[in-house]
Amino acid sequence: MVDVTTSQPTQSANYNLMSNRILLVEDDPDLGDLVAEYLQGEGWDVELVGSGEEALRRASDEYAAMVLDVMLPGISGFETLRRVRAEPTTSKLSVVMLTARGDEVDRVLGLEMGADDYLPKPFSSRELAARLRAILRRSPTEAEEPATPAINPDLLTVGDVELDTRTHQTRLSGVPLELTVLEFRLLELLLRHAGNVVSREQIANEVLGRDLLIYDRSVDTHMSNLRRKLTSDGREDPIVTLRGTGYLFAVTSVS
Q: Which phi and psi angles does 189 have, rounded to 5°?
């Protein structure tokens, strides 16, 4: 059985989440029960399922996030993630993947397929809770939906990219752009600092909600996914990589 730290739950911060429901996908019932009990102590309503097929039947936008094991009976965690991202009702569902320790290929592949973050096994339940909070901290809520203002102060416009921080909607030349929660937060950070360098350490802290780890490919993979979406119609990549320094959004006219 995977060794999971079972320290006493700490009192949860009162974040504004769309939902407090977590879909936990883990085929080891003992581990699943242990993790579910901890997350419930942190204030989440956890539903535990044991396969990718069952996860796909249950998955909906009513959940705040999915915790998804890579190694599952039947369809794998990767295939489950692919189908979650392909379904309109779950395409923006935050996903944390559980991978085998030391298997960098699994971690990079999960991030490239749209996972928001990952944890290698064995893991600490407290760290999982912290990763979930970091991902969900700035997710939109119904209470945050604005009345229609004459001028939207929450709209960032840089070149042909528009990003609304209230509704979490993004448009590229007026066309809606589907981003994951972390891709949205990454783009927001770049737009707010358009024309200036943003370091990988700053991205890790402000987007992932944690320090940059040695040999951590998460920042690079999320950046690669965002770039692919921004250039999907053949347009020039607006993000400049400054090797050893960070990234810069090249267009400087921000409104």
A: -60, -45
Report CA-CA distances (Å) from 196 to 74, 150, 199, 218, 224: 47, 30, 10, 21, 19
Q: Angle at Cα 44 formed by Cα 40 and Cα 45, nearest 5°?
A: 85
The verdict on 128 and 163 lying in the same domain is no
Name the nearest CA neighbour of 224 among 254, 182, 177. 182
For residue 252, pLDDT over 60 is answered with no
Residues 27 and 120 in one domain: yes
Look up residue 187 and give its two tokens: 């783009």
User: Whole-prediction pTM value?
Assistant: 0.64
Work out the pLDDT band at 238, boundaries 50, 70, 90: very high
On the 0-12 / 13-18 / 19+ scale of CB atoms within 10 A, 125 is: buried
Residues 6+ apart with CB under 8 A from 182: 94, 116, 117, 135, 207, 208, 222
Distance CA 219, CA 214 (A): 12
**Shared domain check, 108 and 45:** yes
**Residue 21 near residue 64 (C-beta atoms within 8 A):** yes
Is residue 122 in some structural domain?
Answer: yes
